[in-house]
Amino acid sequence: xxxxxxxxxxxxxxxxxxxxxxxxxxxxxxxxxxxxxxxxxxxxxxxxxxxxxxxxxxxxxxxxxxxxxxxxxxxxxxxxxxxxxxxxxxxxxxxxxxxxxxxxxxxxxxxxxxxxxxxxxxxxxxxxxxxxxxxxxxxxxxxxxxxxxxxxxxxxxxxxxxxxxxxxxxxxxxxxxxxxxxxxxxxxxxxxxxxxxxxxxxxxxxxxxxxxxxxxxxxxxxxx
Length: 224
Fold this sequence. Notes:
By secondary structure, the protein is of the alpha+beta class. It has a single domain, classed as Alpha-Beta Plaits, CATH 3.30.70.100. The protein has seven helices and eight strands; from the N terminus they run βαββαααββαββααβ.
């Protein structure tokens, strides 16, 4: 089995003006994503487009660990951008660009039987600021109540939670879905209405604009 999941993520979000769409997508698909996946420790990657929330474009890279981003090859790529990258990078033409490096906190250990799974057809990603005085209860509720319950929703495949070690906010939750309509299902909505997180933790956490976002995979292409 080829390992496709490690203990870290690199996620990059960006809004791009419509006039740049064609070349931006060509650059990402033909040059940038393949270049990044050639670096050691980059296990898998995909691009997504928002169907709810934002920013509109999302790239997700599965990393062996956060140390992957300290490798000589990754540094060489980053320090020697191609001419196309200099013109089309989300740092150049993007708006609201967000780059986050994340290390996995839940599950504490991934099931070896699932480490070969590919990039999900759809994702829901929440980015949360959690006040320090309620973090312990927040983590307890998420891992022991919200995640087990949401994993029973048809089409919800996996849930992983992360600390953001470069970027902000501190917490990121990634739901892997069979399709982007999962969070529109009656079961998902029933669970959302019945959720008692805020009562349990005795406080509130916040999301930046666009979070949680629901994303449909655009590369590799989907069959449906």
